[in-house]
Design goal:
The structure is a homodimer of 371-residue chains.
Chain A: E1 2-6, H1 10-19, E2 25-29, E3 42-44, H2 51-60, E4 63-66, H3 73-80, H4 89-95, H5 98-107, E5 115-118, H6 121-131, E6 135-139, E7 149-152, H7 158-165, E8 171-175, E9 181-189, E10 195-197, E11 201-206, E12 209-215, H8 222-238, E13 243-252, E14 255-262, H9 272-275, H10 280-288, E15 302-308, H11 314-318, E16 323-327, E17 337-344, H12 348-361
Helix pairs in contact in A: 1-10
Chain lengths: 371, 371
């Protein structure tokens, strides 16, 4: 079976590495010839995203999936009319639009920030009046790694916020949630409706980019894990989702709040390659290929640490016990995700020691210094 | 860094899958265009093994290794004069010749079967007189999966044994060792002389082919594990070996006896992809690339079950909890290794149950029925 993947970044690369053992083969819709997935399959796609390149891609594989959600819904609809695409158009349409996401959370009674749609500056002024300050303004589509966001802390900033983000309108204004920490839960649903959930990850960001995740998130009660599993399972079934889905959450003093979803494998789940019985990548491939799901239990406490902008010394990292290095084959550039490091240990305490050792080796320590 | 691998079978394929996360790239010296490694790198080599194909292969990579030991020592010497090759010529020359192996065991005081070199039928008659019956006759080079062997149980079989094996002479006659079970230990040595040993595997064969391995081998005392580690570490240092090395052992009532070595990753170590902190494939890549070694501890009891001759139903296998399927992209043929299944569990008892479930799904149950 050949899998066609939209996008040829590191997520596609890790999907392919997980899929080869099932004899899956891959093609990628990606214009960049030097992309991380290039050595693992055939590349299609050109800079203009021509119809011909899309048709050639469709002809190249049996089943399709995507590694990023910022692809036109129309394309996925076009493919879906001819061949199976997982996750479905519905999952994509919801996840790539923050207003659709919020409506989904409301519909399923999943707590989330109060919000207001913003089509012009007057809407923004009204949002401040209704939701109070501080207020988080986001583009409804296309934002990632903290881009396309503005926090209004003072009513005088309304004009500036509108000016900076209006190109991305419609916008969404969200009431600020005072949270203890950010968590994420990753789950997978098969073509037969079977679901499996990974343990909650505790995510720490730095300048809008994920710095590191610790899994299972420490000090999570069974009730909190169960609550998160209930939310994501509701979403999976509501969307008739097939494949991996991620739900980012805020943990507050009054419980969990949904932040956003991603209809795909997620940076906060990279620990699962070594830390779980079956990784998010293998499980996504199982779901897309119509196979039964793998066990999502953690083997031991794990951390995922992103390598951003500059590569560390490979030998120094691998000299630390129970570290695994995943490089994506990218050149260095400020703010770019070049790879990640997984660290495992038999106890959280040992894990902390190893995280500190890794931090000492990283040129860009992100949020690890405060750890 | 680009790694050139002699051979493009499943071992090369799994080395490449383990090496991609370090940004390693691969070329393979392999004439079969549809070999298991083909999708993961560039193929060199032709049916005639021409000098030109060898030179092109040498030009294609920075460091070299091999996935099978039946390659001419002269080739490895030829490469070694130009670029690094790990393991070294010395490791290859010893492992590919049973007489050299036996001499190594003697030199290091590692118990092994008494043996006699056989160049003609008269030598064979003398071997029977000196070593007694039954007597195991093997070609000194090139045998695998029980091929190139003859067991003389009665002195009248001498002529038949010589007739069947003389094409492979010189032969080696080995005193029969009455063993309880077959074990193997896999270890790895880095370019700086660091070593790591995996836990002993308990191997069960069927018609000369490895059926399955259970790791850690149950009922192994710490003394037996330590003894095996001492033997293989002696061998690693004596050969100045870099990379993974395997030592097959017989467990007898009077302790461990060395059977043979393989200067490479081994079928009885495939469990380590999911069952160990760092797999034999990743560790081999680390050693060959000049990196520090990974931790070889097991995460939980594991079994490796070979898929021989016929493929099982993929979905049926993956529906069993904690199973992982590794297919090699080969067509079906009697006696051919098509893939393997790793099963893990938190206890040996749960592992036995899962092994029985896997056996029920396999067209060729090998030795699993007697399990």
């Amino acid at each position: 079976m050949k899998i066609g993947i939209f996008g040829g970044g590191q997520l596609g690369r890790m999907m392919a590495l997980a899929g080869y053992p099932f004899n899956l083969r891959f093609s990628f819709y990606e214009a960049a010839q030097d992309c991380p997935s290039a050595p693992l399959g055939q590349l299609y796609g050109d800079k203009d995203a021509s119809q011909a390149s899309l048709d050639a891609f469709i002809a190249s594989a049996d089943v399709f999936t995507y590694e990023f959600e910022n692809i036109p819904v129309a394309w996925v609809e076009y493919i879906a009319a001819k061949k199976p695409v997982y996750p479905s158009v519905k999952s994509l349409a919801v996840s790539q639009n923050r207003i659709n996401e919020k409506k989904l959370f409301q519909c399923l009674n999943i707590p989330a920030a109060a919000y207001h749609e913003v089509h012009n500056q007057a809407d923004l002024t009204q949002a401040v009046a209704v939701l109070g300050l501080p207020l988080v303004i986001k583009t409804t589509m296309g934002g990632y790694d903290g881009k396309g966001q503005f926090v209004i802390r003072d009513a005088t900033q309304v004009a500036q916020a509108w000016s900076e983000l209006q190109a991305g309108a419609p916008l969404i204004a969200e009431a600020f949630i005072s949270f203890e920490r950010e968590l994420s839960i990753i789950a997978v649903r098969s073509q037969t409706g079977e679901t499996q959930c990974y343990p909650l990850a505790w995510n720490t960001h730095y300048q809008g980019i994920l710095s590191h995740s610790i899994v299972p998130a420490p000090q999570v009660s069974p009730q909190i894990q169960a609550q998160a599993e209930q939310y994501i399972t509701q979403i999976l079934h509501e969307l008739n989702h097939v494949g991996v889905l991620t739900l980012e959450l805020f943990q507050t003093l009054s419980g969990l709040y949904a932040n956003e979803t991603a209809p795909r494998v997620h940076n906060s789940g990279h620990w699962s390659i070594e830390g779980a019985v079956c990784s998010q990548f293998e499980n996504h491939m199982r779901a897309v290929a119509g196979l039964p799901l793998g066990v999502t239990d953690e083997l031991r406490p794990s951390a995922m640490i992103n390598i951003i902008g500059q590569h560390p010394n490979t030998a120094a990292i691998l000299a630390i016990p129970e570290t695994h290095l995943h490089l994506y084959g990218k050149t260095e550039r400020a703010g770019r995700k070049l790879g990640h490091i997984t660290v495992t240990a038999s106890t959280y305490q040992a894990l902390q020691t190893r995280i500190a050792q890794v931090a000492a080796c990283l040129p860009n320590k992100m949020a690890l210094l405060n750890h």
